[in-house]
Amino acid sequence: xxxxxxxGIIGLGNxxxxxxxxxxxxxxxxxxxxxxxxxxxxxxxxxxxxxxxLTVDADELIDDPEIDIIDICSPNNYHASQTIAALExxxxxxxxxxxxPTVEEIKRMIAARDVSGKLLMTxxxxxxxxxxxxxxxxxxxxxxxxxxxARAWWLRRAGAPIRPALIYKSQAFAGVGIDLGVHVIDLASxxxxxxxxxxxxxxxxxxxxxxxxxxxxxxxxxxxDFDVDEFAAGFVRFENGASLIIEVxxxxxxxxEQDDVQTxxxxxxxxxxxxxxxxxxxxxxxxxxxxxxxxxxxxKIRPHHLECVEFAEAIINGGPSPVPAEHSLQVGQI
Length: 334
Known about the structure:
It is a single chain. 32% of the residues lie in helices and 27% in strands. By secondary structure, it is an alpha/beta fold. The strands form 3 sheets. The protein has an 8-stranded mixed sheet, covered by helices on one side. A 6-stranded parallel sheet has the order 3-2-1-4-5-6, sandwiched between helices. Strands 9-10 form a two-stranded antiparallel ribbon. Strand 2, helix 2 and strand 3 (54-55) form a beta-alpha-beta unit. The chain is globular and about 65 Å long.
């Protein structure tokens, strides 16, 4: 094509700062406009990213016929309405996770996508890491056999993000379950081949945040009006008989100072661990166990950047969405 795809970003927070780096890596895309309700961000975006077209009105970007892609980085509760409006305006949409807080909203987004004929993608960056792709390729080759159980977690000891877009129901809908939980659910489900969930039991709790003096290394004292979950856990059964255990936390008396992010998969031929990319195999004839480390796919650019690059390539090449909304519907159901 003669000119790059023109991108408008709605929501200029921390995630948008990662995305703008991804669009700059793409030979097919260029960020031309940004939107945020906080005008104090505009000066930084103009100075650091050279973005001169900045507005508080999301409709200005959505309705602009010169914009090809809307990149939605706004708080969770705005994802569905902004995505549907952008699709109806003939835009391709990349939307930050979660695609939407509820299953009903995701279904409406899928319906709008189908009518528009445009691409819709959820920005699940963990799929784009070299470690995840190396493990996925090995699984798809049949090395693990049938995966019948998995465990996935993302645990922080004192890592609640003290930002209104994430810790208040009015903007975020929910807390860590919808923040970190959707990441580990999506990754585990994708590695398992996206089986259809049929039942879920779970808990969502907030215990530490309400304690006097509770704090986070990600922003200081926990506000008194913090009203979302800080811990969530669940057990999922899938249509093919497989199962999945999930645990996520922002605040947990757990022995980690850094993020503890892991996925374990158990198959009829082998087990596997991410992100170490180790396969645990057994030879029943020789009565021996083998631990095999996979050759990883090198991360030439950050996963947050690669998702933008591959979305633009899919549009240019007429390919499918790199992270289809149907997968996010399964995540939403869980």
